[in-house]
Write a structure and sequence with these properties.
By secondary structure, the protein is of the alpha+beta class. Helices cover 32% and strands 20% of the residues. The longest helix is centred in the C-terminal third of the chain and has 19 residues.
Length: 168
């Protein structure tokens, strides 16, 4: 690998990004000026060789310590609860599941670097209450009261759902 890498054109840069959490994707890239026709194939060979080298297991006896940030540990610990909601793993950082009526998808992803999760749904809702607010958006935080009609609808619907969950 060293010989192959040293043959790259002057000014070439290899970038290696390890996975954020185990099971996630790693990224390898090479940026280089091109001075000769053989340089593109050389870069491809470097990437192929490096890909093969990094996918090998660690040598026997090597101590591999993975120090995950708390957000990654929480995300991994949440797996049983997400599976109970019939959500499936797409990547190490993304789960998806069907909405209750099966006519839409729920996406839940983690951003380890930002220490946050994002959940979202998107689907058509013919004749639903949101159609009367066409083109509007609203952002709410827990405990906030809605100041616009759309915010009031969102908080009222959320409160109604929370009350029905308690009844279950």
């Amino acid at each position: 690998m060293g010989e192959l890498y040293s043959a790259l054109p002057r000014g070439a840069t290899l970038h290696v990004k390890a996975p954020e959490i185990p099971g996630d994707q790693y990224k390898l890239s090479v940026e280089s000026p091109i001075f000769a026709a053989e340089h593109p194939a050389l870069i491809a060979r470097v990437l192929l060789a490096l890909d093969q080298a990094v996918r090998r297991p660690p040598p026997d006896g090597a101590h591999v310590q993975v120090r995950l940030p708390p957000v990654a540990l929480h995300w991994q610990a949440a797996a049983p609860a997400l599976h109970a909601l019939r959500m499936g793993v797409v990547t190490a950082e993304l789960y998806t599941g069907s909405l209750n009526d099966g006519d839409g998808t729920l996406y839940l992803s983690v951003d380890v670097r930002e220490g946050s999760i994002r959940g979202r749904t998107e689907r058509a809702c013919p004749s639903c209450v949101l159609e009367s607010f066409a083109g509007q958006t609203a952002d709410l935080s827990p405990g906030a009261r809605g100041h616009s009609d759309l915010q009031s609808v969102a908080t009222a619907e959320g409160a109604r759902e929370k009350g029905s969950e308690r009844a279950l």
